[in-house]
Write a structure and sequence with these properties.
The complex is a heterotrimer of chains A (about 325), B (about 550) and C (about 290).
Chain A (H helix, E strand, L loop, with lengths): L2 H32 L3 H10 L9 H11 L5 H14 L12 H34 L4 H16 L2 H15 L12 H30 L2 H8 L4 H13 L1 H24 L5 H10 L3 H29 L7
Helix pairs in contact in A: 1-4, 1-13, 5-6, 5-8, 5-11, 5-13, 6-8, 7-8, 7-11, 8-10, 8-11, 11-12, 11-13, 12-13
Chain B lengths: L1 H21 L11 E3 L15 E6 L12 H7 L7 E3 L5 E3 L2 E6 L5 E6 L13 H12 L6 H6 L3 E8 L2 E6 L6 H4 L10 H4 L3 H6 L7 E7 L3 E6 L20 E6 L3 H9 L5 E3 L6 H7 L1 E6 L2 E8 L9 H10 L2 H8 L31 H10 L4 E2 L5 E3 L2 E2 L1 E7 L6 H17 L2 E7 L1 H5 L11 E7 L4 H8 L9 H12 L3 H17 L3 E5 L2 E6 L3 E2 L2 E2 L6 E2 L4 E2 L2
Parallel strand pairs in B: 1-13, 2-11, 2-12, 18-19, 18-20
Antiparallel strand pairs in B: 3-4, 5-6, 6-8, 7-8, 9-10, 10-11, 12-22, 13-22, 14-20, 14-21, 15-16, 16-17, 23-26, 24-25
Chain C lengths: L25 H18 L1 H4 L31 H37 L1 H15 L3 H12 L3 H28 L2 H8 L4 H14 L2 H21 L11 H8 L8 H28 L6
Helix pairs in contact in C: 1-3, 1-11, 3-4, 3-6, 3-9, 4-6, 5-6, 6-8, 6-9, 9-10, 9-11, 10-11
Classes of the chains: A mainly alpha (about 325), B alpha+beta (about 550), C mainly alpha (about 290).
Amino acid sequence: MSAVKAKRALLRILGALLVIWAVATITFFVEAGLSGNRAEALLNQMAGTTRSVERTPAELAPINREYGFDKPLMTQYVEYIGGIARGDFGRSYLQHQSVLTIISRQVGPTIALTVSALVLAWLIMLTRIVVTARRGRFLTGFGSGVEIVSAGLPTYWLGVILLVIFAIDLQIFPVQGETSLVGLVLPAITLAIPLSGFLGQVTRDEFEKVLEQPFVVSARTRGMGDLAVRLRHVLRHAVLPAITLSGWALGALISGAVLVEAVFARPGVGNIIVSAAQSRDVPLVSGIVVLVAIVYVIANLLVDIAYTVVDPRLRST
Amino acid sequence: MKLLRLSLSAAVLLLASVLLAACGSGTDSASNVAHTDGPAATASTKPVKGGTIYYGGEQEPPCLGRPEWVQEAYIDRQVLDSLVSIDDNGKVIPWLAKSWTVSPDGKTYTFKLKPGVKFTDGTPFNAQAVVDNFNYWYDEKTTNYSNLGEFPFYKSSKAVDDLTFQLDLTHPYSPLLQTITQAYFGISSPQSLRRSEAEICEDPIGTGPFILDKWNHGQNLEFSTNPNYDSAPANAIHQGAPYVEKLIWSFIPDPTTRYGSLTSGQSTAIYDVPTQNWEEAQGQFNTYEHMEGGKPVTLNMNTVAGPFADLKVRQAFAYGTNRKADVESAFNGAVPYAGNGALTLTTPDYDPQLADAFSYDPKKAEGLLDEAGWTQKNSDGIRTKDGKELTVKIVYAAGAVITQEGLTVLQDIQQQAKQVGFDVVLVPITIEQLFSGAYSKPNKFDIIAQYFTHSSPGVLWAGVRQFNQSMFEPPALLQATEEAVSTNDPAKQKAAWYKAQELLVKNAAMVGLYPQPVLVAAKPELQDFWLEASQGEPVFSDAFLSQ
Amino acid sequence: MSVATADPPVLRRGLELPRAATLLRPGVILAGLVVAFFVVAAIAPALLSSGDPDKINLDAVLQPPAIDHVFGTDQSGRDLYTRVIYGARESLLIGFGATALAMVLAIALGGVAGLAGGVVDGVVNRGIEVLFAFPVLMLALLFVAVFGPSVRTEIIAVGISSAPGYARMIRGQVMAVRDSGYVEAARALGHPYGRVVGVHIFPNAMRPLVVVATLGVGQSIVWASGLAFLGLGVPPPSPEWGALLDAGRDYITKAWWLEVMPGLAIVLFALSLTTIGRWLQRRLEGGTAR
């Protein structure tokens, strides 16, 4: 690899680390700043007191010691960042377990869900585009229409409807899919459909533009079949915007996963984040946020690589 | 083209609605059994060994092993036995304790324990083990605050001999036996309590019918049978190990999904059947219901600050809201109305006379408000006094505390109260905020809607001394609760508890809504399943899957 | 992060309004009617429904759609059609408010980055990336968890979460326009910078965003309803569409209209906005019209 490329790669990685650091920092200070007296809130919560009780410093001391609330804020911050760098995200306030443990045992299903949803979305989108783009008014309009409708469907609404029709009534799929492969189908479809609509709209515009390009016309005049033209020449160029968007899409899918996991009773990071956010379980919240940021950053790095693979014009730069 | 798109979308959505509508209705079929509390009088068929029970639970707790909430208690009950249990007549019955005596001054309890019982980690169950548990609950460093809230009179405990346990209190507490039937007082293996908090949270170990094999977070709990189980409560159908091999307890928070898991056959039984499906469930499945003891879901009125500091205004609110009709319509008749806001109808020493308190009478409500000085009305029909509007905030925790049906009740109340001149604002908070008392300061709420499950009228004592959300503490009430816990005489206890309820209800410090329900539906194959009367916990130690 | 490939932007002076009375396809008209309907519902709901959205009727609970209640009734006997109509105000407020907020933030961030270039661009761009790294729902969730649910919180939460996407787009557009020959020529002719920005760069950069913004309004409403689904929505008894969806989800097998009708409203509104947006785009980009 050339020196230029190595330097660029290094800069890219540094930039990614910067983003992650910034995410962690923002989360820390927002939570610290807005939490009020964290020790008191935590103690009351653990005690289930429902009636707020004034806590003496003596009562708060053990909690302060354990979680380091009595140290100056900057010290807490430095320890926090240092911990993250080491891979130690601290312990959840309410579950008493290490944040990394809590996340790692439930992150698998979420990753499976988002990746399969992304793959599925691409498959649906590509098929639909190749078949319906620029093929006469009705077909084109139909394909485009399906895309627009799909993109506008609220995720959980679609999920509930699919659940009721296909799992509860028709019983084709299990109601509680949990971690089985067949249980992944409905949740993945739920996320894939709107995404395929969104990616599809972008790709369709691009596809239709590329179909008019000179090199395509010349391929046709050389006698190449329509489908072959579409697949070999046009598609490659048309999917570029969608590839870029896929990096963003992964982040959006994680958001969607929160809703889908709630509807389909699936384990995953999604339901952790909701209860963690509501219970102000700061270590757990920051752990998840940072993790998602890492995933997002890696995804975008991959997207850039994919971009250069698909578009040869970018390779030499 | 655009027209095509729009028509397409309309078509898709209409199709969806048609499909849903077609799939909606329930069926009435064979006669199925409806149960309330306790094991069936006759075990019908011969128990079949083997199989797995799939139970569709709802709430996944953050931690096991130190239950502080009834949702956690349901789970821990599978693994932990308590010293005593309670039957559906309210009588305390033997469990891990064979017999017991109470000293005349009510401060010393002596229990004779069942011999030959072992914890599932091999260590023996004996008096010292019980001592270790009590010390663990009340030790400052590891305090289980919930137990402290149940009764704070713990002085000491000791093992008189290997099978005799003595509990000493600083003050008499007459409902003690009923209180310790709850899974909060389940006996864990002392060795297991010496582990780290994280480990205790993850893996409680007791003498119970099941052993927790694995906690698949976000998904389910896997239990297997304790083959040496021999310490079922006295009212169990059989002593000895459970018939089934495994119990899988899933967490399915969404009601549609949970009920769907039952109708599709994936779950053997489910907890918290959605009330709109209750009637059809009774036709298709065996149903079990239990109304939790303790304080019902009640409107705890702020008696010290704001408009409700005035008794007349509180009473006006109670008269002005048709809570009976609201509850019956919202719960589709599956849950009864609780007119007595202080104690539920299944709690010992419940006063049924108070069930008719404050029946709907908007005219009376308006009269009371006029008397209280809220005579002016603004353009929206809201009463004003000295330029201030009669605005009241109802704080409630959504989710497992106030369910969708509960929320419907609150909204109905909101509208009815408006008719007589109240401007009601609903303030949703999270469960965590509720438990941390975030909104309980006098200036933050006017009403808190909440329940407090408990197996005895001792909830009135705790409710007044420890968790007094309405801050209503007249001397007569303190006196009545003090009398009730201090006396040995059941008749005097009853009279005192009745007095306490009367004070709370007649003074509209607690305006009743409905008891916290346990509604379970199970496939007919599941036999000899029952709900324990203490907290409505599901009991699987006698259950088996027929055919 | 690379900018998506795009044709060189078609430049014009100022912001030309679409020529009136040109091909208004029936679909667009229909979409316009739908949007107009909901806008009227938001501004003057009493015109579209004579009922009271909060009025309960315990004798008519969970009635299916019929003549007297075209969308049926809910668990408190309230007319669902009336509630959907009255819910339009808060839903549209959230949708437009969040998008407007996102746009303002995006113009500030993306515009500054695009115009300034260099270090400023680098810093702001990183900032945009950081915001991007918080998925929409998570940011909104954290926000609502801290500040409590209300219409205002929803607007801010969804607005901030949506901003980075627009910011990046604006930045890309601004950069492309800034470097175009046309602008160079204008500068060479001595036109003041402010004028160049105001007359040339800004309108041309913003043009493609019109359709994105219309899409965004629909998306904002959907995200807000997602928050409601998680129990973080506008408090009851608000008939905001997301809140209606949250309230109806338990009844989907018994009273499907509670879940389907508000969902239909959201989807139809978002769809109509998208249609209009795309039509506008075609109009404004005359050169690439089909």
